[in-house]
Model the fold of this input.
Amino acid sequence: MSVSVMAPGRGRGEMLSTALLRWSEPSVGGPVVETPYLLTTAVLDSPVPAGSSTSGVHTHDDALLVWPHVGSTTLHTRNTVRRLVPGQGVWMPPGTPHASHPDPGSVSCYTYVTRAAIPPHWTSPRSLRMGRALQEMLLHLDANAMPDDRRLRAQRLIIEMLEEDPHAAMEVPVPEDPRIRAMAEDIMRDPESDLSLEEWAARHALSVRTVTRAFGRDVGMPFTRWRSLVRMSAATTLLAQGRPVNLVAHRCGYSTTSAFSAAFRRVTGTSPTAYLREQSALAPAGH
Done:
């Protein structure tokens, strides 16, 4: 079964540009999981235009686990952006404002967990490891009918299997000022660009001083370091798609593979080829 996930109150199939998301006014949704079940998974496998989101900013009364089965999904929370690839998931407690958009050709999954089944102390967003067995169990429950007692046993086992990810998806912090956030999102869509801070600021009719202050206040790092993090986040997505390292280096703004590999290791603690091997082991069979 494939289900399109939408913000409460929005029409089916409506797509919003991520640059227009209004974080101060999330739509509020009610519970998704039906009694007596503990969780349910919605699978989005329809084509989504690049740069569009499956929903506006919204919240749920249930906890939510976002994870891609194929391809990659970008998850926006109030102050961060994460690019998720197979094997990675993000857990969000009830009431967490968020929006997401999958890359074209991706299969993105949204597992809702009822409040009664939330693990103790999981009161803040966290990255989870989505091993192949866990992914297949969730998809099996979504696609197949079975007696309630068997479904509940499987759901309890799945919740026990949830564990935090030591190789979590990179969190890219973003400024709160909507003008500067729009600039940051443009940069994230074009990691190959070598435009300077001055040139990016001019494109958005901003002063360099205003941008610099916002990054120091909201992001906690200078622009150059932040852009390196953006490029490494993009690199993990491209590597998970099976792109060769030299192409990924070019697409992420590096003139040589060696410079890219050194930067990747500084940020992730591993080499691009080792990261690619790890992701291949977590990807679903046949992809």
Summary: The two ends are 20 Å apart (CA to CA). The chain has two domains: 16-161, 176-282.
